[in-house]
Amino acid sequence: MTRLLGRSGIEVSALGMGCWAIGGPYGNSSTEQFGWGEVDDAESTRALHRAFDLGVTFYDTASSYGAGHSERVLGAAFRDRRDQVVIASKFGLVFDEGTRASEGADGSPGYLRSCLEGSLRRLGTDYVDLYQLHIGDLPLARALDLVGTLEELVEAGSLRAYGWSTDDPARAEAFAAQAPHCTAIQHDMSVLRDNPAMIAVCEAAGQASINRGPLAMGLLSGKYHDRRQVAADDVRRMDYGWMTYFRDGAGSPEWLAAIDGIRDVLTSGGRTLAQGALAWLWARSAATVPIPGFRSVAQVDENAGALAHGPLGAEEFGQVEKLLAATRQAD
Fold this sequence. Notes:
By secondary structure, this protein is of the alpha/beta class. It is 38% helix and 19% strand.
């Protein structure tokens, strides 16, 4: 099961693997973390190899994930088969590789170039297939100032295409219209939180809709209904305004209740809950490419298993929409 990566013509598996979690701890204080806790690099590598064996060819990371650690693990895992995978990374967030400290953001053309140099070094490659601006709220005029540099990097062969990770449809639409090799918009989207405005932009502008958070940061795995807590250094414990799926380190009750309301439909046809959530995204639009995160071979097995089932059928999709109508209006 494959899809085209927007108007680039690059073919990718319909499911990607999000490599945020395998970056390990990252933050700027004990009370502000952006990673998902401690990781086992050997298990991360086994998981990456397993994903590839199961047909996954698209891997999304960022220069800042684990302050570069995610890129290093990903690059090492696929160094001998670089031409068989499509690697997406991101630029714009500033960090210290040695201390794994976050140091803010820089949306300048100069930092774009230096950030790419670091990504290429850590990935052990001479090109990135898809390079995405990681500052979602960067003013549009400043984002457009980057287009000339991005086009030069495409011409030089350092990039095949580029995009923007943003949740603002207006920014995405304007950027895609004025950036020749922009081919993807990465944005938050799951069965719990549809994004019709962004889907409309992606479909009209020939952009891949790369779905960040397709399993609602893990809630749609089904394992947080027992009120278990995430680790102290897990981003899901942080009190960020956008952290709505988790509260005080546990799944938010209102979202868990919403999941219970659609569980039977999503798990029909032999799917697990997570597989049903991914199937909903494929049914939502031909532009979608969900990128669930992982930290283990078992998680990869379950998520990649969704490929065998394919999208939800029209009847199942309609049932989910009816059941979630009230929840989405309240969100």
